[in-house]
Specification:
heterodimer; A: about 210 residues; alpha+beta; 8 strands; globular; B: about 160 residues; 60s Ribosomal Protein L30, Chain: A; five-stranded mixed beta sheet; 10 strands; about 35% strand
């Protein structure tokens, strides 16, 4: 199987990965709408291949406080996926999910119940993202148990960046903006292991098996 | 006027007093600050991975603890610092997410810290202070003038090591 170089990916391959990202994010938004039982609009996601140095700036600054849910990916595609959101988005989603029963503590201070609600949100969003990827590629993909962190964007992003860092110097970031009553900002970072790229493209018939 | 120069992920910079050097939001990465206390020339590296020899694609020098520290030392010496007088401080290497098991990728913070200590020991550069491990991100600012290594974390008081 052809090995894909993430650094020097052809425009064609990049477009396909972008499209996979779009469809995945669309599915995730639908799942979110169902869970919250409200209408959620999504803008066309932006997909970018970023240098490590630029990643922090992209999500609003390396020191911007964010909440991230991180899951391992197993099956025929391996790697990890992260769903990252700013604090306004996290607070909004958690209060919707708990129907206003969440506490309104200062920045960062989530209660146990709020944390588990956020984990569940992340689980559903990332799970439906992976499901659509699995449907499209007909590969078996399943997420592992999620883990959550609230911290500076740079610190959180160092985790997928390090995983990507083993193969290259860039990170594939998919930014989705969705809104119900307010504008919400969410980001997906899919970190497939290097041979998973070829597997995805091969299963779509883009490259030979 | 002094300024604070920014170092990105997998990046390093050399500064002279009174300027400072900073890196924002260190997670599992490690920030290595070195300086010569006499000439007050110093620098900061932000490394991501412990070992360049374990990886095929290893041309990005500041990405790895081994090559990054070597390059940082080379650059501060080139700016006029004395190799023999260099001292170091390190911060970072947190474990941001709590995974039950998985690969040793999870413990990359610890491995980064260990690799930095090993490299600095091999180069006979003493580590004067460190703030490593735990599970939170850190922003660091280093002043070669005083050797102060300022550490900020979300919801914690600023510390100087």
């Amino acid at each position: 199987m052809e090995e894909i170089n993430v650094e020097r990916m052809s425009q064609e391959y990049f477009d396909i990965l972008k499209e996979l990202g779009n469809i995945g994010a669309g599915n995730a938004t639908t799942a979110l709408a169902q869970m919250l039982q409200c209408k959620v609009d999504m803008k066309v996601p932006q997909v970018q291949l970023l240098e490590f140095k630029e990643v922090g700036e992209m999500v609003g600054g390396a020191e911007q406080q964010m909440t991230a849910i991180y899951l391992g990916v197993e099956g025929e595609i391996t790697g990890s996926i992260m769903f990252l959101m700013d604090m306004t988005t996290a607070k909004h989603l958690v209060s919707k999910m708990l129907m206003g029963m969440g506490s309104n503590r200062g920045i960062g201070g989530f209660t146990e119940m709020e944390l588990s609600a956020l984990l569940e949100i992340g689980n559903i969003i990332a799970g439906s993202y992976l499901n659509s990827l699995s449907d499209l590629t007909r590969l078996t993909i399943y997420p592992t148990i999620p883990s959550i962190a609230t911290d500076m964007a740079g610190a959180i992003l160092s985790v997928p960046a390090i995983e990507f860092g083993v193969y290259g110097d860039k990170l594939l970031l998919i930014q989705t903006q969705f809104s119900d009553e307010i504008e919400l900002n969410g980001y997906f970072i899919l970190v497939p292991d290097v041979d998973s790229y070829s597997k995805m493209l091969a299963s779509l018939g883009i490259i030979s098996q | 006027m002094s300024e604070i120069i920014k170092v990105g992920m997998a990046d390093l910079k050399v500064v002279k007093s009174p300027n400072g050097v900073t890196t924002l939001g260190l997670g599992s990465c490690v920030g290595i600050a070195i300086r010569d206390p006499i000439t007050k020339i110093g620098g900061l590296a932000h490394i991501m991975l412990p070992d360049s020899t374990a990886i095929r694609n290893n041309t990005n020098i500041p990405k790895f603890a081994d090559t990054g520290i070597e390059e940082l030392v080379k650059q501060v010496v080139a700016q006029g610092a004395s190799r023999a007088r260099l001292v170091a401080k390190i911060a970072g290497g947190a474990q941001m997410f709590n995974f039950s098991s998985k690969s040793d990728m999870v413990r990359v913070g610890d491995r980064n810290v260990a690799a930095c200590k090993e490299k600095l020991a091999a180069m006979r550069i003493p580590i004067l202070a460190q703030d490593t491990g735990n599970s939170y991100g850190r922003t660091v600012i280093f002043y070669p003038e005083t050797g102060d290594f300022v550490i900020r974390a979300v919801g914690k008081a600023e510390t100087v090591i």
